[in-house]
Amino acid sequence: MDLGVLRDQIDDIDKQIIRLFEERMDVAEQVARYKIGCGKPVYDPVRERSKIERAKDMATSSFNARGVETLFNQLMAISRVRQYELVAEAHQDNFGFEECNGDHVGAKVAFQGVEGAYGHQATLGYFGKDVECYHVKTFEDVMKEVHEGRADYGVLPVENSSTGIITDVYDLMHLYDNYIVGEYVVKVEHALLGLPGTEIDQIKTVYSHPQGLLQCSRFLDEKPEWEQVSLQNTAVSAQKVLVEQDRTQAAIASPAAAAIYSLSVLKEKISDNDNNSTRFIIIRHKKEYVKGADGISISFELANAHETGSLYHALGFIIYNSLNMTKIESRPIQGDKWRYRFFIDFDGNIGEAPVQDALRGMAQETINFKILGNYIQVE
Amino acid sequence: MDLGVLRDQIDDIDKQIIRLFEERMDVAEQVARYKIGCGKPVYDPVRERSKIERAKDMATSSFNARGVETLFNQLMAISRVRQYELVAEAHQDNFGFEECNGDHVGAKVAFQGVEGAYGHQATLGYFGKDVECYHVKTFEDVMKEVHEGRADYGVLPVENSSTGIITDVYDLMHLYDNYIVGEYVVKVEHALLGLPGTEIDQIKTVYSHPQGLLQCSRFLDEKPEWEQVSLQNTAVSAQKVLVEQDRTQAAIASPAAAAIYSLSVLKEKISDNDNNSTRFIIIRHKKEYVKGADGISISFELANAHETGSLYHALGFIIYNSLNMTKIESRPIQGDKWRYRFFIDFDGNIGEAPVQDALRGMAQETINFKILGNYIQVE
């Protein structure tokens, strides 16, 4: 048969499908108005599931049954988006998040590391030079300061553009009842710092944060005789070199740290990648978001990780609502071998109907679901 | 109007939609057979785009236009999966992978670390106690030994059940023309090792691989005064304690390393999680798989990471073929800020049609697609 004739047939079928789709949307809207009128919930997963099973049974091949399932999942998700739009006109549900003006005058901020560390730079960058801030030792300490109310905000690194996510912070975000209210990106320019007058040939030991060592691995691979010592952060490393006054020691840290700890830059720009940045999150012990917040972070686990398509199905709530997923990460669940927790970022504001629809769907169909925050994205 | 009446109307519309969907699949199959007959490619993104635009124009509201767009994207993706199935029937294509019997008698094997390290344990466990094996210093050295033919096989850790993936190995797997032919899981039982007669109170410095330090972080958090020094691997750390004969030093390594380096176990089972395992991959510079291989690893990037649903769309090829995805990871692409490369594992053998269909689809619709290997999974 001729290709043109086949394509005309497809065009004709598509026209009918579009007509039926629009009829279906009309009737679904009437159902929604009825439900809203008598206070019934829009989403009825049991009913949808049985509807899809009946639809699959009508298909004449196993391939088509699978196709029908996908198609009807989509159709019902589109209907639900429209229905939630109607519900949103009556009842707003922001999952306990409140819009705020983002004002942080007089706030106290905790960051990890010491003065001169990248976390300090992020704190000054986000809150301004005059902010009242203090440092703590570990990522978990930041979580605790904020959770227990000693700090209004905390600043934590979540991702480096070369080495990937900072896994500990992801794990902590799931554990603690704190929420992301902002983000800030710091350009990382690692340098090799030593006591003034030190020659690179004298060095035997180099100190840095494990991420600092990792991000300069190409430079360090050329110095296989150097001992690499991991410390709490890059600025502590610079401080140690200053305190110990030993010319066999060097630190990998920022040029800003050299100034603070009276060290010389022995070699600048030693990162593997000169386009290296670290993304920080700003956290609060409060579910709030500012007007214009355009990024949402969530985490969840799957009830049955080995069921075909269970992750795919969860992602469908984002996609069917025409939302743009920008990131997905998985982390092993402690004590539960080879099972994962997922972390997803997507564009949107929690006040919008499609976002609420996606969140509602995922909250219902995953386990340990958490909205980590809604904030203004950088870039 | 009555809810039951509305639901009957929806059922009636759905019946018609299913009938039209099946008709559309029939015609699309004829188009596919025609295309296969004259060697034309299945995927024609320009034609699909213009088709969707025309479909949207037929909708009578902007909401419905968005619904039509989503629906037709899905419809065409389903058609394409069927078309790739037909292509797979016409041309068997193992993507250059050859079935082999997995015989490795007389093989030379390279692993990272020294004797007594977990990599050594994995090598002996997979190949047997009599294997001819030797150690190299870094993960990349293993890649090079195998790639340049000095070793027939290499052994590399890819994931720990507590700390997650070993990111460097993922990055190297994408870079080097080597392939996974097997996997092996080693139970990790970290212990604190020291010179015989050492008391824990005497210790000032502890050596280990960064992963070893990370996996014992709860134990180490109680010893904030200890200096934590990162070395190449756990066994090198044990060796250092033996060589330096200094009772202020300890190593975190396996009890097996204690035996090899004449050290005492000062404290056993210090891992955060006593269900701690490391998964190793066995690599070759050859595209081969054994009969019964049931796990496939792939990597790819997205042409447009910020296009709604592009990852979802790529995953659809796995799901529509009823394959079970077991793992997804993303890694930043070096030098390309906030863009990611994805690593996915799913169940299957490269000789099977649904697997070939999924691979063909993803190969066409992602960029820098690589099949990392097909091997027998542990557990």
Automatic annotation (TrEMBL), chains A, B:
The keyword Cytoplasm applies. Coiled coil: none annotated. Pathway: Amino-acid biosynthesis; L-phenylalanine biosynthesis; phenylpyruvate from prephenate: step 1/1; Metabolic intermediate biosynthesis; prephenate biosynthesis; prephenate from chorismate: step 1/1. It comes from the Bacteria. Its EC number is 4.2.1.51. Residues 1-87 form the Chorismate mutase domain. It catalyses: prephenate + H(+) = 3-phenylpyruvate + CO2 + H2O; chorismate = prephenate. InterPro entries: ACT-like_dom_sf, ACT_dom, Chor_mutase/pphenate_deHydtase, Chorismate_II_sf, CM_dom_sf, CM_II_prokaryot, Preph_deHydtase, Preph_deHydtase_CS. The keyword Transport does not apply. Residues 299-377 form the ACT domain. Catalyzes the Claisen rearrangement of chorismate to prephenate and the decarboxylation/dehydration of prephenate to phenylpyruvate. This is Bifunctional chorismate mutase/prephenate dehydratase.
